Amino acid sequence: GDPAGPIPQEQLPWRHWEKQVEAIRSILGDGSRRMVSLDELRFGFESFGADKYRTLSFYRRRLEAMLDILDRKGVITRAEIATRMAEIEARSGSSSKAS
């Protein structure tokens, strides 16, 4: 690969959403589902191009690659995910207003 400098050695705590991304990846790639393989994720990373790859964090790359794979396989589209997220946000927004 390209020169990237030294590898940071400090352990950083996982953010909640990073744990969720890793859990979803584990579920999608487990022995019974096999919906997203590690090879597909690697291919997804390589398909980003250098600029997109560099601007995304590790877990954001994983998430973006999984979304691309699921969309390509016809499991769920990004539009369907956006619609569902908007529904959840609207529901949580209205319930917090009522409190």
The unreliable regions are none
Rg, rounded, reads: 17 Å
Biggest β-sheet: count, sense, barrel?
none
**Which secondary-structure class do the elements indicate?**
mainly alpha
Mean pLDDT: 88
- Share of β-strand residues: under 5%
Shape: globular
Residues in helix, %: 55-70%
Number of strands: 0
- Sketch the topology as an H/E string, one letter per element: HHHHH
Put simply, the count of helices is 5
How far apart are the termini?
Answer: 53 Å
Model description:
It is a single chain. 66% of the residues lie in helices and 0% in strands. With 99 residues, it is mostly helical.
What is this structure, in a nutshell?
The protein is mostly helical and 99 residues long.
Key words describing this protein structure:
99 residues
Secondary structure blueprint with pairings:
Elements: H1 16-28, H2 38-47, H3 50-55, H4 58-72, H5 78-98
Helix pairs in contact: 1-4, 2-4
